[in-house]
Design a protein that fits this description.
Layout lengths: L1 E3 L1 H17 L3 H13 L3 H20 L9 E9 L2 E3 L3 H15 L23 E7 L4 E8 L1 H4 L3 E5 L5 H15 L7 E9 L1 H11 L11 H16 L13 E11 L4 E8 L6 E4 L1
Parallel strand pairs: 1-3, 2-4, 7-8
Antiparallel strand pairs: 2-5, 5-10, 6-9, 7-9
């Protein structure tokens, strides 16, 4: 049994909050620069150039990539051979508090959805914990801005729905979103499970490396099919037209009930952030 002091959890979450908000994953940065080079029209090419320049400026000036530094979503994989020295979730919330206040990140969380008083430190975080094999803890912090989150959707299809029905639904979600989620977007699509698992699959999909396709060839092909359809919409960078409406589509699937076929679409803007650390 390995002992881990929860202060290590707090420090890691603090650092990941800051890191994720200032540095996009390498694969996503590459997609943005490739999209800039692929745009043929002057305006969308210029906009993609500005987006790429913004990444460089954030790194040079040591500031967040986007002014909406998001609601902190924390995925924790805890090894079953780990003993934590104190309260685990409290340690995560404290890490978020320190990350956002010490990192001078915008605090956007209200304590109650209807009585909207800002908590002042971006807590509480949204926490998803899994028990896994081993003696380590893996933490992934995925700050989620709500310009894109608000465009997300879920639909409970019947089993009669076809693959084409699902493609049309995902495309419809993006058509309805238009320029609101600051395209080009990254889409996380969850298929299967039940109502809440489907949404979690979609959120998890946003944390997959954009260079990695689904290991199941069936779903990998479906990812590419949806991506092609999305870019044919020509919503383009920031909604001004062009070839790049979406940078990537990641699908995660799970077993479901014989009477259902849930599909969730979690929309991420071009600043789809996440950073991980193993303790």
């Amino acid at each position: 049994m390995r002992e881990i002091d929860v202060q290590e959890i707090t420090q890691a979450v603090r650092d990941l909050c800051i890191q994720a908000n200032k540095c996009l994953p390498d694969g996503l940065c590459r997609l943005i620069r490739q999209a800039r080079d692929a745009e043929e029209q002057e305006l969308p090419r210029a906009i993609m150039g500005d987006i790429a320049d913004n990444l460089d400026a954030a790194e040079k000036l040591d500031i967040p990539i986007c002014q909406d530094t998001g609601m902190a979503v924390v995925f924790a994989e805890v090894g079953r051979d780990v003993h934590l020295s104190g309260p685990f979730e409290e340690a995560i919330h404290e890490g978020v508090r320190r990350g956002y206040t010490e990192g001078l990140l915008r605090c956007s969380v209200v304590r109650d959805p209807l009585r909207r008083i800002n908590t002042g430190d971006n807590t509480p975080a949204v926490i998803h914990t899994r028990i896994v094999e081993g003696d380590h803890v893996k933490l992934t912090v995925a700050p989620k801005g709500f310009g894109s989150e608000n465009m997300s959707a879920i639909r409970m299809f019947t089993p009669a729905a076809s693959e084409s029905d699902i493609v049309e639904y995902v495309v419809h979600v993006m058509q309805e979103a238009g320029s609101n989620p600051c395209p080009p977007v990254v889409l996380g699509v969850g298929i299967g499970g039940d109502f809440e698992q489907c949404a979690l699959l979609a959120k998890t999909a946003l944390c997959r490396d954009t260079q990695m396709r689904n290991p199941d060839l069936f779903y990998a092909r479906l990812e590419e099919r949806i991506l092609t359809r999305l870019n044919a919409l020509e919503i383009g960078p920031q909604g001004f037209g062009g070839r790049t409406t979406a940078l990537c589509v990641n699908i995660e699937a799970a077993p479901t009930h014989i009477a259902g076929l849930p599909v969730a679409v979690n929309v991420g803007c071009h600043v789809t952030r996440h950073a991980s650390k193993i303790i």
